[in-house]
Amino acid sequence: MEQRTELSTIGEFGLINRIAAKFPITQPETMKGIGDDAAVIDAKGKKVVVSTDLLIEGVHFDLIYTPLLHLGYKAVAVNVSDIAAMNAIPKQITVSLGLSNRFSVEAIEELYEGMRLACEAYQIDLIGGDTSSSRSGLVISVTALGLGEEATLAYRNKAQANDIICVTGDLGAAYLGLQALEREKQVFLANPAMQPELQDKDYVVGRQLKPEARMDIIHELNALSIVPTAMIDVSDGLASELLHICQQSNIGGVIFEDKIPIDDQTYLTATEMNLSPMTAALNGGEDYELLFTVQQSDYEKIKNMTDVSIIGYMTHDVELAHLMMKSGSLVKLTAPGYVHF
Amino acid sequence: MEQRTELSTIGEFGLINRIAAKFPITQPETMKGIGDDAAVIDAKGKKVVVSTDLLIEGVHFDLIYTPLLHLGYKAVAVNVSDIAAMNAIPKQITVSLGLSNRFSVEAIEELYEGMRLACEAYQIDLIGGDTSSSRSGLVISVTALGLGEEATLAYRNKAQANDIICVTGDLGAAYLGLQALEREKQVFLANPAMQPELQDKDYVVGRQLKPEARMDIIHELNALSIVPTAMIDVSDGLASELLHICQQSNIGGVIFEDKIPIDDQTYLTATEMNLSPMTAALNGGEDYELLFTVQQSDYEKIKNMTDVSIIGYMTHDVELAHLMMKSGSLVKLTAPGYVHF
């Protein structure tokens, strides 16, 4: 039988001590981590980049099918993804948790173990946070800090007409993974004896439960001396993100349906579930890939990158994004996006 | 009749745009605020100080007696207090909110107006955040960033034996304000026609609902060239905070009962409610005053500061804090503190 230690037996300070012991400082930029009124960072002459996300049970995640280890990893990865989208290097995170007493110490440690694995993978320090009880569900608030050089930070508003539009990895999988998990949840709720049918959904489910921030791409771009003119991470779907770049750069963009990278399992899962794989790619969200624009002069370098697809180019249109269909017709993109309310 | 606009009518992006319009960038260190994947800060060669707090309805605040304007102000002030306790200057905050649909746009704007007033008072920029729905109560996560010089940052672990122990303002009022509000809440719940009896509780109630971070003291210490050897803000009660300094500095401390600053209204309220004013000061919490230690050589400067009380001195004891009673007996301090679980 699994051990269950009640949170009340170790208290808040006990929990903080247990966590602190598992998160030693590893980055030279971290001068002070957990244990004082605030953490202290040495920016070493670089610019500091800050992003924050709030994850609430029942809104952003469902513990019925989300293992705490993966949830911890994802909570860190999605924040690191925002730092990556600035073309910066993540260095630290703070994590605040609201916990109901249905969580045992072991469950909380599982959540932190996922965070620790992410800290290890992205080479960042957990430097502080806050823990308290929550009357209802689990609440996770993560703030990520990174460093970047002023000249190479990538904003959303610096794309130029004729710039090449690129996207990393493939799109739509995380959305279909979520649909598959939701379907299995309904089956399970109707009949708890049923075994989940997710054997051929490993990729899409993995994309939903354990996304990775594309720091590999950031390091590769840096090694190739490519500075994106604009960059954003794909959290709300390709259409919404491209529109952000168009609106903030005050220009247009056109992307090509047959260039949009979609994995085979995404196609198969979409077909099986009677969903459109293209809609999943355009509006699905949670892929955490990077959408970025580069100058035409970077074309030769970009085309050799293995996990980057060239999907279109920026235009002189004002704040309009279009999709060129395989059929040859041009469709105006809109962003229903992800409505959080 | 008050206007009530449903959040769903303006959506997440609509809300973000409304908020961003009210929080223009004012600090030269803020390079990019709301509107990109992350905010960007120029540390200007200083060290970056980071603190975060999570406030959950029903745990940290009760909306029955907490006006949203004050709640917004307090959420910022308590984070600024942590930056102050590092002897640093606050510069930016990020704010994430989890909102249930019982909140109208007007209510959310009232909350942000409180934050805006605090940003104005402490001269800081709101540079980012995240908003989403919450299945249950209101969730507020604030991260504060500040800047400090490496040589003058005040940690908890650098107090020395014989250092003078100082505290700002007065203690225990916030706790008694909370007790008074809780009592009125019970009266109100029993009979909603009853008028609240808080006429003579303005000070203690104000200390609970609208605490201030003591940035005035930080500026004054700086002007007097006093660098505290250790500093902490009083959020969990004087005893708990003094013990943190003793433990982290690996020495002892003794404070004198008759030197602990307690306001007259705190005494009167405590007496009326049959509570001990000294217990409120030692273990009450939420005063957000500064507890700090200075070298003996700073005594002449410190004693002329109008809102600083000298309450004791650090000793060679190891990790032990004592209270010298008026009676002459020495009592070992313990920290029941504030148990969040």
Account of the protein in words:
Chain A is of the alpha+beta class. Chain A has 2 domains: 146 residues, PurM-like, N-terminal domain (60s Ribosomal Protein L30, Chain: A, 2-Layer Sandwich), CATH 3.30.1330.10; 169 residues, Phosphoribosyl-aminoimidazole Synthetase, Chain A, domain 2 (Alpha-Beta Complex). Chain A has 10 helices and 13 strands. In chain A, a hairpin with a 5-residue loop joins strand 12 and strand 13. In chain A, helix 1 packs parallel to helix 3, helix 2 packs parallel to helix 3 and helix 4 crosses helix 8. Chains A and B meet through helix 1, strand 2, strand 3, strand 4 and strand 5 of A and helix 1, strand 2, strand 3, strand 4 and strand 5 of B.
Keywords:
13 strands; 341 residues; alpha+beta; 10 helices; homodimer; Phosphoribosyl-aminoimidazole Synthetase, Chain A, domain 2; 35% helix; 60s Ribosomal Protein L30, Chain: A; disordered C terminus; four-stranded mixed β-sheet; seven-stranded mixed β-sheet
